Amino acid sequence: MSNKQLDVQIMGQSYILGCPEGGEERLLSAVSKVDVAMCKIRDAGKIKARDRIAVLAALNLAFESPEPAPSTTVATAAVSDIPQESQHRLSQLLKRLDQVLEQDGQLI
User: Fold this and answer.
1) DSSP per-residue string spanning 40-72
2) How many CB atoms lie under 10 A from the CB of residue 99?
3) Which of 17, 20, 53, 108 has a Cα at 20 to 30 A from 100?
4) Could you report the per-residue pLDDT of 15-65, keeping only the tens digit for each?
5) Domain ranges of the chain
6) DSSP label at 106?
7) What's the CA gap between 26 and 8, in Å, rounded?
């Protein structure tokens, strides 16, 4: 099975992704989900750094994935529809992520 390359956009930035033949529809669906999740967090206006937005979107998507998730996810936290205690916990998580990223120098 050969790989095909697709040019996609996530949050306005272009990416060229490898995709096995026949997997285009699944990949484009995944790209759409990631784009929507990242744009929702960005548009909430509280988080500007692309790497932080990507981490939160990844956490949301992983949390929502195989089993049904409660309606409140990390992305809704960015919209501040959650209790103060949860906002504080999210803030602490972001600080910890910043510390790790500073040590490592990159996300991946």
Assistant:
1) HHHHTSS---HHHHHHHHHHHHHHHSSS---S-
2) 10
3) 17
4) 999 988 899 999 999 999 999 999 999 998 888 888 888 888 888 888 876
5) 3-104
6) S
7) 13
